[in-house]
Amino acid sequence: MRTEGKVMKREPYWYLSLNGSTDSRKPFFFRYAIGYADAPGFPKDNYYNFQIGPRYRFNEHFSLDFDLTRSVDNGQYGYAFRESNGTPVAGRRRNISVSSIVNGIYNFTSRMNLSMRVRHYWSQVQYSNFFYTDAEGNYIPRAFQNGQDQNFNAFNLDMFYTWDFMYGSKLIIGWKNALGNDFPINGLLYDKYTKNLSQVFQQPHGNEFNLRLIYYIDYLSLQKKQHG
Description:
The chain is mainly beta. The chain has a single domain (14-227), classed as Porin (Beta Barrel). The protein has helices at 193-200, 219-227; strands spanning 14-21, 28-39, 42-57, 62-82, 88-109, 112-133, 139-142, 150-166, 169-179, 205-214. Strands 1, 2, 3, 4, 5, 6, 7, 8, 9 and 10 form a ten-stranded antiparallel beta sheet that branches. The model has no long low-confidence stretch (mean pLDDT 94).
């Protein structure tokens, strides 16, 4: 409840999962995972998730990897907001979250490569009930309050050129692109993952460029040269 001395009871639940993959030595590799959870006595509060992750190695230089994870929690309980007097309010909500990641790497040589990672994360929270809690963590119903639903997006792109030009020495050139935190996307107008992903590219993004040089100096070799 984000307040010292305040607790909230949680119902016991069971969780079942299954995961597996194909032979990672092959050019095409596929991994998967699915899960389902339920709380006895709360049939409408079930939870499920799945993950798929194909990877394809085109040749010894280039490979692409994709990872998609989606979870739906129909009965998530947790802190919601505070009253004007500071009293914490808990809520029951439906939480949908989707994460998609693309990784790619191109090896020019064994010591030089270009790598890229693109990630988009979306989370939507829709409240159905609000509660206070007593000293033992039991729920005390509270009147419903509109305007507490949340719609969150995060987008990051990271690209790096890496050159190991000497033993222990390397040059790294990086570019980072990210969605600005000050530009939220309206969850009422855009209530699906694909709609949010489309809107991500309509919002302002920040860019960061960096250059890093790591040079290894063998102190013992320098000493030998000086005394040689």
